[in-house]
Amino acid sequence: MRIFLATFFLLLTTHSFATVIKSIEYNGMVHMSEPVAVRMLEFSAGDDVNEVMVNKAIKKYFEQGYFNDVWAEIKETTLTFYFKEKPVISQVELKGWKEDEEEVKDSVVQIKKGSLYNARKLEDAKKRIIDAISAKGKIDSVVEVETEYLANGSMKVTFLVSEGEEITIQNLQYSGVSGLESDKFDTVIANKEHQWMGWFWGRNDGKMSLGDLEYDNLRIRDYYMQYGYLDSKVDSPFVRVNFNHYTADMSYQIEEGAVYSISGISIEQMKHVVDDEKIREIITLKEGEVFNIKTFREDADKIKTLIADLSYAYVQVVPDLKKNKDNNTVEVVFRITPGDKVKVRDVVISGNTRTLDRIIRRELYLGPGDMYSLTDLKDSRNSLGRLGFFDGTTIEEKRIDNQSMDLIVKVKEAPTGNIQVGGGYGSYGGLLVSIGVNDRNIWGSGIDVGVQAEKSQTSQNYSFNISNPRLNDSDFSGNFSIFKSVYEYNDYTVLSDGINLGLGHRFSRYITGYLGYGYSRNAYENIDMNSTYYQNYEYIFEDYAKSSVTISAKFDNTDDYYLPREGLTLSQSFEKAGIGADAEFMKSKTIFGKFNGLEEYLGFDAIFRYKARLSGVIDNGYIPLAEKFYMGGIGSVRGYQSYSLSPMDGTRRIGGNYTFSNSAEMSFPLVPAAKMRLVGFVDWGMIGEDSIDEISRGGYGLGLEWFSPVGPIQLMFANPLNEQAGDKTSAFEFTMGQRF
Q1: I need a surface site. Which of 194, 288, 354, 396 has the fewest CB within 10 A?
Q2: d(C-alpha 624, C-alpha 620), whole Å
Q3: Residue 64 belongs to domain spanning
């Protein structure tokens, strides 16, 4: 702040104490409007103004935080305030740490583009960066701030980060442990002792996480309480750091105490809303058993869900433990305060810039005027996730009063379609050229429409399809498709064209049924009759038509379409061919999938999946070669070429009548910001003509799962198991658009 001395010298010489100001002007003020500035003055044009009044006005303007400098000048009867604005920050960069992660800039740096330069806020940002790095176990980090004025008058701020060194835990000791095995503590704590080859997956690298250090002793105590040690005490760890080598020794002092058994289970309802016996039916804890704090919490959640499903949205279940130290028993008490029944006043949809409101609302099991249900709320969230239209969905409960609430449904739109003119390279089909338009949620209507034209070294496919999962917003669905294709298998080529149409119905939240009809004409070409494979077998390559009816049922309670973390899928279909066409057979397909998110147990977003497929076909007159089963590739046994595993007649592949394949997968976050994950897998399958286990093969490997801008992509690198002479193996495959 400054005031020109000449100005006030003029004031003092012309008027001893004050002068009459006829006009007030502002120069250089941008971030504050002139009317606001005028209202902040304690005087106005026409008043007698002295030095003290002007000084006070300058101070008040400066305190607004918009200016680096404020001063005033009086010429004759005009008072002019001059402002030097703080520069606007137009660019914020991180160098040396998390350079391309915008989320870090928002959550850690917290300096927004368009904000005014503020030295104190920059210092606060430096501290937050250092704290974030320290939480990952790195010490001695340095952050410097570099500022640069740009040509447009704005400022560029760059945080130059020099990350410190990680601390490695060389020795971790526990004193006082006798009842449990201390090795088991590694399953719950974040800071673990370094193991040989700690860099390898599944081993402990020993890197210290300072952010978790203060909670690890609580995690160990919680682990003790899962085995009945209610009096256990676990002190905070004693850490000795060697700053010369950035290593540390850690030790815990533990008092285990006695193991407590459950002497009784009591239920106390502040207001009786449900029979105690119904509550007891869902309680897992049993009298006489060793107490388990984890089961105790799960039982409390079950009780809360039971009561909340009766519309008591604000129910509180307060568990209590009455210990008897004389005989080491504990009485478990569940105190239930249900509150009032709650009605949903309104449901507000937000974030859907594309998808129509009604498409979202028809998936919700709670609407305005409905009584609250916690299960309905969870099922609504999962139902939205299964659409595959959104990157994320949340349903917030906004309390209005003790008897009503609003539900705020927040969605984040995901790309559901694309116009594709391009190509690629497939592990089985070779070079691929594709032109197509596909959208699973065209115009936000929930309708799936696709037009596709593909050509590769081994296939041609032209198709049009349209399907509506909710005809006229009802529980009925419908689909229609027409196609023409050419597929070159290992030993022959199949030319097909046909149509498919069907009608489905949703019987419950998780169960749907389907009835469809398909007709196709199929012809064989490019048969390798010169090899020993098919000599004297011309009859199996007769052209044929297929007319079939398919009936199926599906159960699906997963929480997401592409990347489920909970729930299972189970589908069963039967196809009957032979309705006025050449092919006559009955085909059965069973598909199962189980998905479990492991973040609660491992501390990061790992997902375990188990998938299985069982298929069989019965000959009712004629089974074309292309209608039989073949194994190999993604979807059955990775590590072998697609369609390459089959029963043989001499040296000829004849396809199987029965097949079973299953796989176990573990998916881990690799680059969360890029929506990229790493997956490890083991596959095993069997196939046969007369029995299912005539051929048995497996595969294992690693893969990349990526939600790319053009859709979900899987890149799989596999090795075969139980490889036999003559097998055709494949080390790499990829797919696009499939559920992980």
Answers
A1: 288
A2: 11
A3: 5-85
Q: What was the pLDDT predicted at 201?
A: 64
Residue with tokens 């990229």: 676
In 3D, which of 266, 366, 281, 277 has the Cα closest to residue 317? Answer: 266
What percent of the residues of the chain are helix, what percent strand, and what percent coil, each to the nearest 5? Answer: 20, 45, 35
Closest CA to 165 of 205, 123, 136: 136
Q: How far separated are the first and last CA of the chain, in Å rounded?
A: 63
How far apart CA 500 and CA 244 sit, in angstroms, is 72
**Does residue 284 share a domain with residue 181?**
no
Whether residues 183 and 315 share a domain: the answer is no
The answer to whether the beta carbons of residues 194 and 204 sit under 8 Å apart is: yes
Q: Which of 22-26, 75-79, 83-87, 607-611 has the highest mean pLDDT?
A: 607-611
Provide CB contacts within 8 A for 205, sequence distance 6+: 168, 194, 195, 198, 199
What digits encode the pLDDT tens for the residues 271-294?
A: 999 999 999 999 999 999 999 999
pLDDT at 433 (0 to 100):
54
Q: Is the dihedral of CA 14, 19, 21, 25 positive or negative?
A: positive
pLDDT digits (tens, 9 = 90+) for 369-380: 999 999 999 999
- Both 247 and 108 in a single domain? no
Choice among 115-124, 309-318, 399-408 with the minimum mean pLDDT: 115-124
Residues 6+ apart with CB under 8 A from 693: 686
Q: How far is CA 561 from CA 106, 381, 611, in A?
A: 29, 12, 15
Q: What is the CATH number of the domain that holds 642?
A: 2.40.160.50
* Per-residue confidence band for 422, with pLDDT thresholds at 50, 70 and 90: very low
Q: Of 106, 84, 116, 97, nearest to 158 (Cα)?
A: 97
At residue 428, what is the residue type?
Y
pLDDT for the residue numbered 687: 95
Domain final residue pick, 55, 85, 115: 85
Residue indicated by tokens 């052209």: 543
Torsion over CA: 342, 348, 352, 354 (sign): positive
